[in-house]
Amino acid sequence: MTDTSFLQRLTEKVGPGAIFTAPHDIAPWLSDWRGLYAGHAQAVVRPASTVEVAACVSLCAEARVPIVPRGGNTGLCGGATPDASSANVVLSLDRMHAIRNIDIIGNTLVAEAGCILGNLRRAVADEHRLLPLSLAAEDSCQLGGNLSTNAGGVNVVRYGMTRELVLGIEAVLPNGEVFNGLRTLRKDNTGYDLKQLLIGAEGTLGIITAAALRLLPRNDVRVVVLAAVESAPRALDLFKLVFEQCGHRMQAFEFFTAECVDLVLAQSDGVRAPFPMRHASYVLVELADTVDETALRALTEDVIGTALERGLCADAAVSESIAQLNSMWKLREEISEAQRADGTHVKHDVSLPVASIPAFLVSAGERIRKYHPAIRPIVFGHFGDGNLHYNLSRPFGAPDDYFAQHGEALTAEVLDEVARYGGSISAEHGIGQLKRDYFSQYKDPLEIRLMREVKQLFDPRGIMNPGKIF
């Protein structure tokens, strides 16, 4: 039920232009990008400063009103969607999009949480620096959401996850206090690293309002290789060769099956078959450096020549231009949209020890075929860091609601197999609402108990993003 007295006080804190209560105004903020989740709220608040965020949170804490932080709404687990309570306040930081500082001596960026990731990457590129975090949704996702989910992306094999790029954080805690941890120091051994608790917490411990990030040299020299491989073990052998010969220059190592390419060719415009023959699977490798292009290309061609000689790949193409480089990446990047256009499906964002991926693909495939031989695994992902998107499309001709009946059972098949190999049920998308039950099932009970105790310490009133993770 809407509390008019509370809303009036909230309006006084942030101004009438920053709060919305009419049903038609708040409706777009109540569902997730995939259309899987929808909730309720009494208001949407769009503060313009950390002071306003703190004022809003303080008032909500006093009134015990639940807060749902919202970024770019590009998450896939319902982590930014409110639950069924009509008391919720959705708090969006989209008006907080200032770049506070770019330091090209210390190589750091300080930016507010509402900044669009792609805008940040372009801004630092103009200063001849690189922000390595790169996602398919980078032109709509926001920095605060990236940190709150510890986002991954295509460059993790070289630069690591989001948390490895973070030097400092500013955040508003559930009682309205501001955590002033926005430091750009590379070394600070003064006790617990509290910022790491907020990274990946999905807004359940507080609201990140700004962050200080590491910057790297801008890699203007890039070469992409698209290779056809006949099996996952061959892809693993190719990964070992490229890693040994190219070291830190390997920036991405992506794997996808022939079924992924078939979907893209059927559903996407401007894409053509990569090779004259259809192959079982494909690998896309990106190498990047600050050296001249001739040297990087010579290294790339030498390594791929060795791979062909050893039979690690059946065919390969090296990009000759930026246009060709982008075209190779498009084949990989269009997979998710192509699968969505194909119809209903279930997604599994999992991680495994890299060496276990080939065995997992065999055993998981056997389990899925045993369940139903016509289910189509659509498997792709960041092979170099162990992150697979093990998605399942319904059998041809099956009804649209096929996964409403079979989705949970199939997910159990996949996640049981992930657990058997010592993997994780969430690699880069978080838990949100989607994986909440699986989280309690597959996570170690001691870890869950400690996490609950941390949650209780930070948020004793339980107002921060209720229903997420736990």
TrEMBL record:
Organism: Caballeronia choica
Record keyword Flavoprotein present: yes
Flavoprotein as UniProt keyword: yes
SUPFAM superfamilies: FAD-binding/transporter-associated domain-like, FAD-linked oxidases, C-terminal domain
Record's keyword terms, sorted: FAD, Flavoprotein
Family: Belongs to the FAD-binding oxidoreductase/transferase type 4 family.
Protein name per the record: FAD linked oxidase domain-containing protein
PROSITE patterns the UniProt entry points to: FAD_PCMH
Sequence ranges assigned to domain FAD-binding PCMH-type in this UniProt record: 37-218
Classification via PANTHER family: BLL6224 PROTEIN, D-2-HYDROXYGLUTARATE DEHYDROGENASE, MITOCHONDRIAL
Highest taxon of source: Bacteria
GO molecular function, one term: catalytic activity
InterPro entries reported in the protein's UniProt record: FAD-bd_oxidored_4_C (IPR004113), FAD-bd_PCMH (IPR016166), FAD-bd_PCMH-like_sf (IPR036318), FAD-bd_PCMH_sub1 (IPR016167), FAD-bd_PCMH_sub2 (IPR016169), FAD-linked_Oxase-like_C (IPR016164), FAD-oxidored/transferase_4 (IPR051264), Oxid_FAD_bind_N (IPR006094)
Cofactor(s) recorded in Swiss-Prot or TrEMBL: FAD
GO biological process, one term: respiratory electron transport chain
